[in-house]
Amino acid sequence: MRALACLPAAALLLAGASAQADTMPHRKAGLWEVHMNSQDQRMPQSTMQFCIDASTDGQMMNMGARRAQENCTKPTPHNSGNVTTMDFQCTMAGHRQNTHIVFTRQGDDAYTMEMHSEMVPPMRGMGQHTMVETAKWMGPCKAGMQPGDMIMPGGMKMNVLNPHPTMPGQ
Hints:
By secondary structure, this protein is an alpha+beta fold. 19% of the residues lie in helices and 46% in strands.
């Protein structure tokens, strides 16, 4: 269950990892609401809120890119208007994951990221996987939130730059 709760954080890092910081547009500072939908029933739909500023957004992209360099080929982003596509391959525990991402911006206050992956050979019964992430800018960050803070399903709060989760009321 804890691994599933970390899925939104992983997807955000993957979005940063799959692109170099200078090729993807930075997100607008403030509170973002992110909805994730996976075809795999082991990864249920989830919604989280995320507070960012320009510095945090850049740090996340760079952190994700560094992690991806260890196991993945360098993606080559292709930009066409408000759409960026990229393909890359990662290797984990003897499995190769081929990934295709389509990142579509709707102005500076919304985006959709579709990620299609194939695991060869299949890992834990999963050969192909599709995940869609939609995000919308909600305005300024909530009181008590600082850049990097995420409120995940169930109310767990963590900061992606200093990940020590807390539960509501702590």
